[in-house]
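Task: fold both queries, return tokens.
Query 1:
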Amino acid sequence: MRDAASGDGVALRRLYDALAPKIVAYLRLRGAEDPEGLTNDVFLAVFTRLDRLTGGWTGFRALTFTIAHSRAVDDLRRQARQPRHSEYDAEHDGRADSSAEQQALAGMDDGEASQLLALLPDEQRTVVMLRVLGDLSVAQTALALRTTEARVKKLQQRAVLALRGLVSTSESAPKDLDEVGR
């Protein structure tokens, strides 16, 4: 960490390589428009603060995810203010909902965890992602979200209960459409 703080390019690269994939995944799950670009912005902000950083690797990881969360919030706000222009494609028309069966089958293909997380309320999803992807403590998560540790614990508890219910529901659902008629 000391070498990186002094500007050693190799040390900075090692820090980036160790944490960037998790930051990209976090930003992608939060709905960032350009998760790779935001990840670069996050690391630029973190690297300028390395000389003042305390807490070693844990402090570095906590600071990085705190900045990533702030950038994700800013990006979502920016997206909400700007209208999106795109060609009309009936197949991707978001105004029509797919059936429950189609949603369940789509969730089983790839990214089942992402699908389950998407069903959680935003605050619960954020807490779970920071705790699991970011490997942040309750205190670090509370700091990143600018809330109390008690609130983080409560949100995490609710998220775990909701995920358990969702998983047990998906496990008890028929795996084959032929079983639905039986």
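Query 1 returned. Query 2:
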Amino acid sequence: MNGILNPNKLNMINKLVLGIDIGGTNSVFGLVDQNGKIHFQKTLKTSLYPTPEKLVNEIYNYLNKINGFKKIIGIGIGAPNGNFFTGSIEFAPNLKWDGKIPLAEMFKEKFKLNVILTNDANAAAIGEMIYGAAKDLDNFVIITLGTGLGSGVVNKRKLIYGHDGFAGEYGHIRVIKNGRLCGCGRKGCLEAYVSATGVTRSIYELDSKNKSKSKLKQIKNPSSKDVFNLAKKGDLFSIEIIDYTAKILGSSLAEFSCFNSPKAYILFGGIAQNGNIFAQKVKRYMEKNLLNIYKDKIEIRISQLHNRNAALLGSASLIWNNNN
């Protein structure tokens, strides 16, 4: 869907929302109708924009160039450490932008439209609840496995924000005492082990007798995707890394279940899309460590919106829900 928006098709649509998903690696923006159809989207490398103002201007100029402002009624944004109450990104460890960034206000001033911002994982949770794997769920948690690890907690089909907008930071719950240094500055956080970045770190930091024989050593700067691809081909060290990652995540989900007893955890992101093998491993380790009263009651589901961009749909839904 990257490319020029067909003006004839645009004229047939009554209203659109500009959805924006800001990630540590890529940022995606697109035009979404109320039925969840993405009529246009474009991906940008977040690192190419040293300041948030440059990203705001890039999106504005691109939409202006393709005449994309017609019928846009508002802007919904999902971003790391995005605070729904303040409209700001606050100290996001996986972004190069420092401190508190009033991003919603920046977009509002530039576009002269209503803007709502939330955490990127919360946006993905809304997307799954309305259009994807959580349509039949009232209580669930989404776990986003990207550059970092995010989570969105839903109870009775309402997002839990907490008193200050930052409820659900599962990625920064410490799971290993004095473990790996996390981007947040603390040690042993779940994100440092279970994320694309965490998987890559395991390539170098995990001790294994299979390490020296692994084909990962033949790849320059191997990625988490390389680990999963080689695991499918029987590479023993890659299989070991995946099992190690699933064990930490599954064990952690067992602990988190005591907080809100969800009906399901929904895994979202590149790691989650490597088939049922990873999800099944996570489920097995979760069940092994669950308190008895929760056993065999909690599902592990995989996002149904990987090819539709749940975070983008969820971001746009912030506006649609506000207008209904």
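Both queries returned. Flag for query 2: The chain has a mean pLDDT of 91.
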